[in-house]
Q: What sequence folds into this?
């Protein structure tokens, strides 16, 4: 499960990072939550946080910190998408995976909630979450 | 273990950055140039503000952008040059392709802008329909297009080729959404960025 969540982050971040940042900036602008400078900062920085978190989760490096970061990211997604639904913003899709996977907002909030719960469970069962991880190699050496 | 955890962390981050940049640069190597399209351009070709818009006629933001640009043209008639390129989002919009074919064929009869403006103004009317062609033909009739020639053109492979070639050109430039604008070569997506850039250009020019 930890590796699966890591892969989700890597795919999502990869789609954003290998295309011009203006595409993700447009997605963020749609949520109408930040001033212009904040939107640009988020569009530039956030995909890198997603990528590093995803890679660390997949490899099992700094598992506890990575899982906690993932939980925070899911909370942010749920808040951002939730406020868009409540404010009835005219968004055709969430933009989470660019144009790779097009998901409506209500589906995304369910998916993010499920992934958040799984991440919390993984944090609580940290010893089992650390199976097949680089952390274990360092612990045993 | 010979390698410390901290060093491995830094190494992995560096590898991630290198991979992302390598993929990005590799894609940019194959980016195509934006060919000029005379039939779908308006304003003075020597204008200081050169705008190329990649459009999907069914996208609501494109309709908003069209109104914005028309207002800018009224405000600064000789200072803007606009070209339209096709980027139909086929997976998202059911009428994206047909509306693009009709626009291209209106352009071949010399009436692209008349068709474009009415198509955008009436987007909310045809967008929810199962078949938008009734509205497209109505617009064509209003601007006095030759309907037989239009029908043949919409069905032709040549029209399809033009549209898909332009979409491929847009994809090679990294376009994912519409409306995407290139203002004096700078890529912008959406009407908020468009407004900010044009306002900044004219305020800089007036100072």
A:
């Amino acid at each position: 499960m930890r590796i699966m969540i890591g892969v989700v982050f890597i795919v999502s971040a990869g789609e954003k990072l290998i295309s011009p940042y203006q595409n993700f900036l447009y997605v963020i602008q749609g949520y109408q939550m930040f001033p212009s400078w904040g939107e640009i900062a988020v569009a530039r920085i956030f995909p890198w946080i997603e990528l590093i978190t995803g890679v660390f989760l997949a490899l099992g490096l700094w598992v506890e910190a990575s899982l906690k970061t993932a939980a925070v990211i899911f909370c942010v997604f749920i808040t951002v998408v939730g406020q868009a639904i409540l404010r009835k913003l005219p968004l055709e899709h969430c933009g989470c995976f660019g144009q790779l996977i097009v998901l409506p907002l209500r589906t995304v909030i369910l998916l993010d909630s499920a992934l958040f719960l799984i991440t919390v469970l993984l944090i609580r069962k940290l010893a089992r979450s650390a199976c097949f991880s680089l952390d274990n190699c360092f612990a045993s050496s | 273990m010979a390698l410390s955890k901290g060093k491995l962390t830094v190494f992995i981050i560096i590898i991630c950055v290198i991979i992302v940049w390598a993929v990005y640069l590799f894609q940019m190597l194959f980016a195509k140039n934006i060919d000029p399209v005379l039939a779908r351009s308006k304003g003075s070709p020597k204008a200081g503000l050169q705008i190329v818009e990649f459009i999907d006629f069914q996208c609501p933001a494109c309709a908003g952008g069209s109104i914005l640009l028309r207002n800018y043209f009224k405000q600064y008639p000789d200072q803007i040059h606009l070209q339209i390129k096709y980027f139909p989002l086929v997976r998202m919009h059911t009428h994206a392709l047909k509306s693009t074919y009709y626009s291209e064929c209106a352009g071949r009869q010399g009436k692209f802008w008349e068709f474009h403006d009415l198509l955008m103004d009436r987007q909310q009317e045809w967008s929810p329909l199962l078949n938008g062609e009734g509205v497209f033909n109505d617009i064509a009739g209003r601007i006095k297009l030759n309907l037989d020639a239009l029908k043949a053109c919409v069905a032709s492979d040549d029209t399809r080729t033009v549209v898909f070639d332009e979409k491929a050109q847009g994809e090679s430039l990294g376009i994912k959404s519409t409306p995407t604008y290139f203002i004096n070569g700078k890529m912008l997506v959406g009407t908020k960025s468009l407004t900010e850039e044009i306002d900044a250009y004219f305020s800089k020019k007036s100072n």
